[in-house]
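Subject: complex prediction, re-run

Hi both,

The earlier run crashed halfway through, so I resubmitted it with identical inputs.
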Amino acid sequence: MQQPINAPTLYINDLNVWFGKNHVLKDLTFDVFPRQVTSFIGPSKCGKTALVRCLNRLNDLKSDFRYTGNVQFNGKDLYSSKVNVTDISPKIGMVFHKPIPFRRSIYENVAYPARLRGIKQSSELDTIVEECLIEAQLWDEVCHDLDASPDILTIGQQQQLCIARALAGNPEVLIFDEPCEQLDAMETPKLEVTVQNLKSRYSLIFVTNKRRQAARVSDVAGFLYNGELIEFGHTEQIFTNPKNKLTEDYVTGRLG
Amino acid sequence: MNANIMNRSELIYHTIAIISLVIVIILLWNFTSDGSYVEGKINSDVITEETVSTIYGQLYRMIPTFCGVILFSIVISFYLEEWLQQTSWQYQIIERHIAILARVPSLVVGILAVYFIFFHFQNITYYGLLLTVVLLVMPVTIQSTQKSIQTVDISVREAAYALGATRWRVVTDHVFPHTFSKILAVICTAISRILAIAAFLVASVWIYGSNSFSFPKSVILLITGALIVSVLSSLLD
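This time it finished cleanly. Structure:
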């Protein structure tokens, strides 16, 4: 069954998450639409990372993880027993706060998700690697060093490589979990431009604790505080006319 | 609630451990206080040149078994670290037993092997040597391999899982290549332990049989081999 054009890619309803006895996310309800950047802001330890890790099922790796509520991806329950996690994970790609290139060449890093999907033909892999590196705005810098180790790249370039690698998984949603945390002031704008360029093809989720960055890159923003989604709406409204006092305190810098 | 269950299970575990220790001490006391038992069993007539060559024969036969034990230990380490939940009771029990066995000095295992294999049973059995190899190699190999697996950054695993890798692919593509040199070092350590204990076995039997404090050349070779492999192990680690 095909999804209506304006249907959300991700539909989250009444999501509660626990790690052991720790109730980290409380009654979260929101939608993520295609071709939009949805950002989540909030002070550290407010549950931003726990939330995005729920969306690509990375929290499953933790033995004390427990959840209630409904998370739907393209209209289907993400946590259904019929869902194969290894099939769904690349569809909801993730870029972590620290660039994590694998111990293999630049080419093999990007080709890895394609190989996991069973693609073996070198011509097909070449095309995927080139397309993904172009999309991640890294092709011009590495096209002559594809067989080199990612260690020759700067931290910013390594993060671009991780974006290219996530794109090679053929995702529909791309999650950025504080991707500029380790980048310097010169590299951050480039990554923000990449995010803006990717918006036309993917649903993007951008987690950051930098208020101005969220205001610059996102179309929709959510403010998380102590595991609760205090406010969720258009970025302009959140930053210029917040409805909640806590949101106002956070965006004006009085909180966090 | 969970904390109570953990406390209760720990209490039971510690009680069993203390009772076992008391039983072992009582048995050892009886064993050593009645000296005739130890003396009576030792018969130097059975130890001849042939005995030593039989030992070597058995040791050579043990090489495939030794490789199997090493491989099995490495597989167990990966199973414990990558498949078994570290909070599960199975993990906790296996982990504790391995920790206890790994702390037993190799000399203790060697003395027990010499006593039981040569003097008590007066026969070099395959199962006796197998038990020695298992006690000597498995706990240390498992523990060291586990430690090397734990050095692999969790973020590498998570990055691979996020791309849709299965657990098997994560282990074969990322964890194993990361730990390969350390596993080689662990294997070298195991080889050096085995060579050293083989030297100890042969030397003990030789000294007892010949009634003189001299070593055959092969013992020196075994000790040299153990030292070389130890150095190699430290280079690889």
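Strands of chain A lie at 10-19, 22-32, 37-41, 65-73, 76-77, 92-95, 173-177, 203-207, 220-225, 228-234.

- K.
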